[in-house]
Amino acid sequence: MVNGFSLDPDRIYTPREVAQLYTAHVRHVSYPTVLEWIQVWYNSNGREGMEAKRTPRGRYLITAEEVERILLQAGAKKMEK
Predict the structure, then answer these.
(1) Which of 8, 36, 39, 67 matches a 20 to 30 Å C-alpha distance to 29?
(2) pTM of the model
(3) What is the CATH number of the domain that holds 34?
(4) Residue 68: is it exposed, middle or buried by C-beta count within 10 angstroms (0-12/13-18/19+)?
């Protein structure tokens, strides 16, 4: 496990990158699982899951703020400055 995570606040992440970050800082999670979290968000009207914006080509993009929320909610530690 890595000590803590640090995200660039202006960066946009793909579901695959989120899966890699989550695996590195919390526990193993697969790319299809992250896609399921996104679907849960839409199906629950934003009460559960993970928010992602969809591009015109159908790809999902996740803000650094949302990635941080998911990691902290799961128990990951943010790197101290």
Answers:
(1) 8
(2) 0.90
(3) 1.10.1660
(4) middle
Overall number of domains in the chain? 1
Q: Are the beta carbons of 78 and 65 closer than 8 angstroms?
A: no
DSSP state of 63: E
- Sheet with 53-54: list strands edge to edge: 12-13, 60-63, 53-54
User: What residue numbers bound the domain in which 60 lies?
Assistant: 12-73
- Between 62 and 79, the more confident residue is 62
pLDDT value for 67? 97
Neighbours of 52 (CB within 10 A): 24
User: Does 58 fall in a domain?
Assistant: yes
